[in-house]
Amino acid sequence: MNGLPRYTNKIRLPIFLLVLLLFLIAYPYLHHTYPKHIAIVELFFALIMISGVSLLTRHKKTLYFMVGLAATILIGIFIMGTVQSRVLLFFVLLVELLFFLVILISLVTYIYKQKEVTLDKLYAAITSYLVLGIVFAVLYALVATVTPVAFQYTVSTDFASLSLFPHPAFFSEALYFSFVTLATLGYGDWVALMGPLKMVASLEAISGQLFIAILIARLVGIQIAQSIADDD
Cβ–Cβ contacts within 10 Å for residue 145, how many? Predict the structure, then answer.
């Protein structure tokens, strides 16, 4: 987990970023349009798993570990297409959380190890921010799987239906809540009711602001050091 390969990610990193953007844009629309088509979930997560695992080819142990997580997620999603088990859903979400955490740590490590501001580093910065939002979304989905009343809509919405299967019917809502919180937009149409969960949402908002501030400071610092070195 010592970061991404320095040279092999030149194509794989933009592809992973493109897959994430496609997922975030198309996934909510498709699952609302075709709520019972589990193949939509399989397709998107298969693309994310494959492109995500391809980033971590530097260390075999990490690669094998990620392949195992990806396979577990895809098999779990496939089974949930026929078996509606809340325990299985919780387990799959837990594995998803671990998968995206490994990706996030690897991306951040890669960013802070590089000594030059490159296009790859900018790709990694954008991708890591998106993955951070997905990590919190999975966490919210985990909580809602155990306690469906942990969230409440302040507008007229049948929230109870969101806690039912299939899994994507709730997960896209969790994605929305996560990125709205991460960007500190605070629309207020969906709120956390539990005290600990409120603190998690607050920590996500703080993390989003600190992430951008620290990242920009890091990039500016590298650029200044790079300019000084070039002048010398």
Answer: 20
CB atoms near residue 57 (< 10 Å): 15
- Chain centroid, CA 132 distance in Å: 5
What are the φ/ψ torsions at residue 6 (nearest 5 degrees)? -70, -35
pLDDT at 112: 79
- Look at residue 101 in the predicted model and tell me its pLDDT: 94
Q: Which two tokens stand for residue 97?
A: 């959380």
Tokens of 3: 């970061």
CA dist list (Å): 206 to 38, 46, 81, 120: 34, 31, 36, 26
CA atoms of 219 and 85, how far apart (whole Å): 45
Nearest-angstrom CA–CA distance, 43 and 46: 5
Q: What is the pLDDT of residue 8?
A: 46
Q: Alpha-carbon distance 50 to 48, whole Å?
A: 6
What's the rounded Cα separation, in Å, for the pair 87 and 109?
Answer: 33
107 vs 194 pLDDT, higher one: 107
What pLDDT, on the 0 to 100 scale, is given for residue 190? 76
Report the alpha-carbon distance of residue 207 to residue 196 in Å, rounded: 16
Tokens 């960007």 correspond to what residue? 183
pLDDT digits (tens, 9 = 90+) for 41-75: 677 778 888 888 888 777 788 888 999 998 998 88
CA dist 228 and 13 (Å) reads 29
